[in-house]
Amino acid sequence: MKEQLKSTTIIGILHKGQAALGGDGQVSLGNTVMKHNAMKIRKIADGKVLCGFAGASADAFTLMERFEDKLQQYRGNVNRAAVELAKEWRTDKYLRRLEAMLAVISQDVALVVSGTGDVIEPDEKIVAIGSGGMYALAAAKMLKKHSNLSAKDMVVEALKTAADICIYTNDKINVEIVE
Asked: CA-CA-CA-CA torsion for 56, 62, 63, 64, nearest 10 degrees?
């Protein structure tokens, strides 16, 4: 039986003029932690867009490169670049096999992009993917509703909550912001 690589909690929030995207550092293979400090988020488009990934690392890097190319092609239009990537991802024979998801956040948009052709812009401007994504999402929704924290601080606290619950998430947190 093939060991399944599991890892990642990525959460992004747009709040009060700040965009923050963060991820944990854990990479697991089966029931073993293989790495504690993986960096799963990147600044792209001259630091104007943040992109995080969940899934197979090589697949995710391929998709992030394609997304960055689409951003250049469509002059920084995040929505258009995401839709074009999702269309290509779904229809291209090679790309269709890639197993990853992307969370994308900029100053004014938060998106989840998947290989099934989905480009989702959540109503609350909170994106969450990965093994602990739904735990972090629940925490972030409550923090956004009931606290005065900055977007960055909400991301950190949501990731800490996910790390307390999800065995595939740790507390080695990386956060990037766009203001």
From this structure: 100
Give per-residue pLDDT as tens, 114-142. 877 789 999 999 999 999 999 999 999 99
What proportion of the chain, given as a percentage, has pLDDT over 70?
A: 96
Read off φ and ψ for residue 105, nearest 5 degrees. Answer: -145, 140
Closest CA to 142 of 114, 161, 163, 117: 161
Q: Which residues are catalytic?
A: 8
The verdict on pTM exceeding 0.90 is yes
User: Residue 164 in 3-state DSSP?
Assistant: helix
Q: How many domains does the chain have?
A: 1
Q: Which domain covers residue 84, as residue numbers?
A: 5-178
Q: Which residue has the tokens 């949501």?
A: 158
Q: Give the CATH number, domain containing residue 104.
A: 3.60.20.10
Cα separation, 165 vs 75, in Å, equals 40
Write out 64-128 in H/E/C secondary structure.
HHHHHHHHHHCCCCHHHHHHHHHHHHHHCCCHHHCCEEEEEEECCCEEEEECCCCEECCCCCEEE
